[in-house]
Hints:
Blueprint: H1 2-28, E1 37-39, E2 43-50, E3 54-63, E4 71-76, E5 81-85, E6 95-103, E7 108-118, E8 125-134
Parallel strand pairs: 2-8
Antiparallel strand pairs: 1-3, 3-6, 4-7, 5-6, 7-8
Amino acid sequence: MKDLMKNVAFYCLIALLLGLAVRSFFFANQQKSTTIVQVSSSQININNIMLGEIKDTVIYLKNIGDEILQLDTIGTDCGCTVAKWHKKPIRNSEQTPITIRFEAKEEGIILRKVQIYANIKPNPLIINVKATVKNKK
């Protein structure tokens, strides 16, 4: 009888864990509510920066939709460009700053992309960075 109770408890635990796993799977794959944003600038131009210099530029995302804006992550296509942002949700009519830091590591005309992933369409939102880097000579 004692072994039977152990087996029943074991199988109940397995069924509970499977149920939680299935529930998590279905909730993780649900579509998030999307919102609409207005970006202060989708193109950043950095003219005449010297090799080795760093330039910070701030853009703003304003939530003009009905849902809360949640920034998931912001990626860049090079280590010379880094983005910093607040992780807090942005309500309707509020805006949030995004600081984009560019470090001039090579000479010439440099083109970079910043990808903003959030509950928006298009997702990601692309910000283009164009820099004209000159040598210090």
